[in-house]
Specification:
alpha+beta; DNA Binding (I), subunit A; four-stranded mixed β-sheet; 6 strands; elongated
Length: 191
């Protein structure tokens, strides 16, 4: 199975993940300026009836696209999903510190019923028992404190959170653009 390829715009900023099929389309349309990275993938096409030659395209793991990125708008905002939230919080309950991959829920620090929003800054990973015990109460009412501070991931963190199978050269590029305070920056490799 071929991993996702990382698309980078002409300014050097990673823009989005591509399947190998999308990458081949962009390459054949001349929309790839150049490619780099330590990993190469060669794809075999059909056989030319006239010459008998088999078509082949070799792609690297990071592709620099010509022109402006059609995904430029994504750089401003990372969508909040449970998968991305749990990866941001490193699968740790924000209340008891329990680490689990199977029994996590999205908790709203200030509950909806109390005017809380569904946002990166108001959400954290919580184990089922802590979330049920908390219910619609505020942390102050329970005497609880968060074990870590929620934050909104930047675009590069968002790309890391979206892909579970990041190649090392892709991770090196992305993590070089992640702020120092990020919990992602503290892990050596993606989970």
């Amino acid at each position: 199975m071929t991993p996702l390829l990382l698309a980078v715009d002409m300014t050097g900023h990673p823009s989005h993940w591509m399947t190998w099929q999308e990458a081949i389309s962009l390459e054949t349309l001349g929309k790839v300026s150049y490619a780099f990275g330590n990993h190469e993938f060669t794809f075999r096409g059909g056989t030319n009836r006239a010459t008998g030659r088999v078509s082949r395209i070799t792609l690297k793991s990071i592709l620099v696209l010509r022109g402006r990125s059609p995904f430029e708008h994504r750089r401003r905002y990372m969508h909040l999903t449970n998968t991305a939230l749990f990866r941001r919080d490193r699968y740790m309950c924000a209340y008891c510190g329990r680490v689990t991959r199977t029994e996590l829920t999205r908790d709203h620090i200030v509950p909806y019923s109390r005017g809380g929003k569904d946002s990166w800054m108001n959400c954290c990973a919580a184990c089922v028992s802590c979330n049920m015990h908390k219910g619609s109460r505020l942390l102050e009412e329970l005497g609880w404190k968060l074990l870590y501070v929620p934050y909104t991931p930047n675009h590069q963190e968002g790309l890391i959170l979206q892909n579970r199978n990041i190649l090392q050269d892709q991770m090196d590029l992305l993590s070089s653009m992640v702020p120092g305070h990020s919990r992602i920056n503290r892990s050596a490799a993606p989970s």
